[in-house]
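Technical note accompanying the year-one report. For the benefit of new consortium partners, we illustrate the data format agreed upon in the data management plan: each record pairs a sequence with a structure-token string. No post-processing was applied to the example shown here.
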Amino acid sequence: MRYTLLLALAFGLAAMRVSAQSSTEDSVKAAVNVLFTGMKNSDAAMTGGSFADSAILQTITPKGGILTEKVSAFADIVGKMTPGDADERIRFDVVRIDGPLAIVWAPYEFYYKGKYSHKGVDSFQLVRVNGVWKIQYLIDTRTK
């Protein structure tokens, strides 16, 4: 009886931990999805608001160079598009969380005005600021 009770307690605690991790992972994914919803809706405020104040946005070029873009400039470009023009479709391959720090590795395909443009991988570093996940660093690759 004592063994059964201890076993049930252990499984219960493990289930609670998995549930809490899933909930936190879902909130990290939701924060990343805010960026792509903002892009698809051509919403500059939503797009820019998905980033932390000191965020860094970079792209690795096909020749290996690194381009750095200001988040505000990126959000402005998005805001000038027609809704639906920018459609980045990601797949969450890896999500790891340690307290207020999270990483996301997400392969993607990008469509512009309904036509395939390119693919690559987005690598996100997120931080929890005042209880809200924000993108601190985003670097991506781009290939045809």
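Partners are asked to follow this layout when depositing records. Helices lie at 2-40, 44-49, 71-80.
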